Inverse folding.
């Protein structure tokens, strides 16, 4: 789709500077964009590219000066997302059920649904209108999938799981596998499996990346609340609750029965032990280890995770340890404590 800068600005409700008749056909990164393309500047690290970019237009904050036409917004990244949706409209799928799909007679599917090759849908599954299920996906009995969902290829949704409306799940993810529950029968003896009889509930407009595992609850639900976004390769154990609009980045591991509040952010490779509570709006930095509950509204870092200012002071002190050890050894030698 080709639009002028003026037309794009009108469609997203923003002002523009420069040549409003410049034509935009696609989007690209600021460092590689060329004529006919639009990019954005949100991270200050990319400011040097303002002088060298060949983009036909940029989306920038009001205080940024550009040599090319610009669409102005206080949140350039957010506005750029709207522009992407305009330039790359979603195609209307061909609705229907592929001949190789296996759909139980007791499953409830609307006319407006797309079921691709080799999908398996078991008994008493309910699927909402506008949902697309890509090739090779399995949906277990008595599961519910809401309207306008996008389920990627080779996804597994085990029995009894519940997905809200507008949920996106990328390829290879497993929803509702057994939680890791085993009881020891004696010292050094075999472990007895504890049957996992719970389920998984996923709220509206949740997006889950590729190769994520979310275990079913041991007796109740594992819950991912509305608007949460989960990156690739995340592991969420049984009976965890992830609060609405939380962000969980790649390779995070959350142990059983931990509760995350609203809008919690866990950066890459954060690990949490079980039965914790993480308060609303808490942020935990990459590779941190969380061994106890954390209050909301603060940033944390380290292993064990501490308030980030405290952790920074500790790290600063550690950097001085080699010099401090030399000074102590010199003092001990001077006063005769050490030869």
């Amino acid at each position: 789709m080709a639009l002028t800068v003026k037309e794009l600005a009108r469609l997203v409700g923003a002002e523009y500077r420069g040549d409003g008749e410049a034509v935009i056909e696609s989007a690209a990164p600021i460092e590689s964009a060329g004529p006919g393309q639009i990019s954005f500047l949100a991270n200050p690290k990319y400011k040097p590219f303002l002088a060298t970019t060949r983009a036909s237009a940029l989306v920038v904050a009001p205080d940024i000066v550009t040599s090319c036409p610009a669409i102005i917004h206080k949140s350039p990244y957010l506005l750029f997302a709207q522009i992407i949706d305009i330039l790359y409209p979603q195609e209307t799928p061909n609705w229907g059920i592929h001949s190789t799909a296996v759909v139980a007679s007791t499953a409830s599917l609307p006319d407006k649904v797309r079921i691709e090759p080799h999908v398996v849908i078991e008994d008493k599954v309910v699927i909402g209108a506008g949902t697309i299920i890509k090739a090779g996906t399995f949906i277990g009995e008595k599961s519910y999938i809401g309207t306008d969902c996008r389920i990627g290829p080779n996804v597994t949704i085990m029995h009894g799981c519940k997905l809200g409306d507008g949920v996106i799940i990328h390829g290879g993810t497993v929803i509702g596998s057994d939680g890791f529950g085993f009881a020891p029968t004696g010292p050094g003896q075999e472990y007895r499996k504890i049957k996992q009889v719970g389920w998984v509930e996923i709220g509206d407009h949740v997006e889950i990346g590729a190769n994520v595992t979310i275990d079913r609850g041991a007796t109740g639900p594992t819950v991912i609340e509305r608007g949460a976004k989960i990156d690739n390769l995340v592991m969420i154990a049984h009976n965890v609750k992830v609060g609405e609009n939380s962000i969980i980045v790649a390779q995070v591991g959350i142990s059983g029965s931990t509760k995350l509040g609203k809008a919690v952010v866990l950066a890459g490779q954060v690990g949490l032990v079980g039965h914790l509570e993480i308060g609303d709006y808490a942020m935990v930095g990459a590779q941190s280890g969380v061994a106890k509950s954390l209050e909301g509204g603060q940033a944390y870092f380290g292993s064990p995770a501490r308030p980030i200012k405290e952790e920074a002071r500790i790290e600063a002190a550690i950097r001085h340890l080699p010099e401090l050890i030399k000074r102590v050894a010199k003092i001990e030698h001077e006063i005769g404590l050490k030869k």
Q: What stands out?
A: The helical segments are 5-12, 76-87, 308-319, 321-334.
